UniProtKB/TrEMBL annotation:
Keyword Secreted attributed: no
Name of the protein described by the UniProt record: CAAX protease self-immunity
InterPro entries with a match to the protein in the record: Rce1/LyrA-like_dom
Biased composition regions of type Pro residues, renumbered to the chain: 313-323
One biological process term in Gene Ontology: CAAX-box protein maturation
Pfam families (UniProt xref): Rce1-like (PF02517)
Lineage: Bacteria, Bacillati, Actinomycetota, Actinomycetes, Propionibacteriales
Amino acid sequence: MNQPQALPVASPTFADAPTPPPDVAFHRLGVVAGSRGWRPLLVLLLAAVLYAASGLLLVTAAVAVDAITGSTVSDRVLALDMNDPYAFVSGFALIALMLPALLLARRILGPRPVGLLSSVTGRLRWRWLGRALLISVAVYVVGLTLQLVLLDPLTGVPLTAARFIPSAWVFLLGAVLLVPLQAAAEEYVFRGGLMQLVGGWLRHPAFAVVLPVPLFVVGHGYDVLGQTGIAVFALLTGWLTWRTGGLEAAIALHVVNNGLLTVMQAVGWADPNVTDITVPAFVASLVVQGLAAWLLVRSADRMGVQRTRPALAPLPAPRPAPAPVALETSS
């Protein structure tokens, strides 16, 4: 008697591997980490809550010191006179608190690794950061020298002898300890979190670079020319972040800019409370920042600094297995 028998079912075969997806730029790293939709926004909102809570603790501590000692620390802090050491330390410390707030929020809500906020490698590239700091220091020192020797005399600004202001040691120490934290915090928030938030929704890097700029500008209190300079700085650091694949160059430029101003304040060459910016000073700052950015990009290219992160290629789709065929066998 003939009975039909089925051939063994063939294992599925796979199609040829698809073309690998393009590498991912810094502003799109949230997509690489699996963060789409509203999660990056929730991270920033949680960071804002954590930051507000830490700021409240700082203010409460100042009020408690006043109550215990009968001093006026809180009044001096709230006066926002940046020549006052209390206002300087509290102001920069308050901004620096944005960094742990953002990192903690990112760790709680994801996406992970948290290091993707730093660069396309998933970490802060310390060797590149060190070189970027050296380049920025060199450019700014040369720029300051030319300003003091050439620009100021041509524009009628008298050259005064350096003299330490009261409590200058606080500002010099702050330039080394507080300013780097303050500058890094702003870069992580505005060029890290916000750029990746925008990049999760809009693919083109121009949106991620430009859209956070107004939020950065409103945090400063200069005149129109000064605010324009702040906007240009934000655009430049945003572009550097995208172009070099991480925050290191932007952090270096920000640290050196603010650190040098703080040192100049300590020796009586700068007043942080001044909000009116002159045209020569505005132009000089643009030239210095532009030159520094150009040298940073050239150095990054020579070092082979990684600009993008490889995207995970999808697995090839399996081909359907052929249907079993029934055969007649003779008994």
